[in-house]
Amino acid sequence: MSLSLPNYHDVQQAAQTLRGVVHRTPVLTSQTLNGRLDAEVYFKCENLQRVGAFKYRGAYNAIARLSEAERKAGVVTYSSGNHGQAIARAARALGVTATIVMPLDAPRAKRNAAASYGARIIPYDRNTEDRVQVAQGLADAEGLTLIPPFDHPDVIAGQGTAALELFEDVGGLDALFVPLGGGGLLAGSLLAAHAIAPECLVYGVEPLAGNDGQQSFRKGERVHIDPPSSIADGALTQCLGEYTFPIIKQYAHDILAVEDGKLIHAMQFFAERMKIVVEPTGCLGAAAVIREVVPVRGMRIGVILSGGNVDLASYAACLAHEP
Ligand SMILES: *Cc1c(COP(=O)(O)O)cnc(C)c1O
């Protein structure tokens, strides 16, 4: 670890940087759900954030904090998902050149979206090349700064601003449920929650098939798993980060894991009852609450809906899925 762990002050600073840059996303409630659970549930709608996910927060904050020389040289990342789109869009907003390393067989929609933000796309072969090595190679050769999807202090601090806004808007909470992939969103949320509402129990929620975070939390050290398979494509990480894990280990109340069926059920609930599109990964925290994976009755609950990017064909298939 060459940088220091971020703290609450960094989240507050990120909030300053992001003011007027990110949407202050709405907090929605459902009387139907509250009645059924006998709880007050507040959904922080990052599915309505720029580029359709909270990732814009961390990406913009990380690029904004680079030196003049680093900005001039440009940034590189290896995510073709929400982080890649967020880097492409944030880099353009800050006048920085972005390079996105993407698999040769990445969906055209993803390539086009990144290219439409002016990013340079570098294809690599998933079967023979390692994307991190490809990105690091470009960084070394061209003097670019690599901005990873979760394991970076400035990314974590930026992601923490979503929970910060939620606490500002609704006040104290008994529990907060956060989708968990590599842990940038959870670690940032924990920094905000611990400072603002230290009594609030914060849960990370993963896909059951990819519960490396749960295993790591229980064991007290990072556990590396084989590539998982789940519809939660934004949370298929194999290991928590060097920077995210210590924060999660210290402050998280527990890590929960939910199977894909619960995510589909939650997507249907959001479409039918709340009229919002939430991607499978974005439903992780909500699914744990809706299906009462832990007790929620009588509590004030916060849930981060982390994203809304899902291609229409798979969205339609999820909605049509019989319970
Ligand atoms: C990236 C992502 C996550 C997971 O975030 P981490 O910081 O990797 O834990 C959750 N939901 C969505 C929609 C994402 O794009």
From TrEMBL:
Q: Which InterPro entries does the record associate with it?
A: TrpB-like_PALP, TrpB-like_PALP_sf
State whether keyword Lyase applies.
yes
Please state what the protein is called. Answer: Threo-3-hydroxy-L-aspartate ammonia-lyase
Q: Which source organism does the UniProt entry give? A: Yanghanlia caeni
Broad EC category: lyase
Entry annotated with the keyword Amino-acid biosynthesis: no
Q: Which SUPFAM superfamilies match?
A: Tryptophan synthase beta subunit-like PLP-dependent enzymes (SSF53686)
What's an example of a GO molecular-function annotation for this chain? threo-3-hydroxyaspartate ammonia-lyase activity
| Keywords per UniProt | Lyase, Pyridoxal phosphate
- Where in this chain does the record put each Tryptophan synthase beta chain-like PALP domain? 21-307
Task: State which Enzyme Commission number(s) the record gives.
Answer: 4.3.1.16
Annotated CDD domains: Thr-dehyd (cd01562)
Which cofactor does this sequence's record say it needs?
pyridoxal 5'-phosphate
**Pfam families noted in UniProt:** PALP
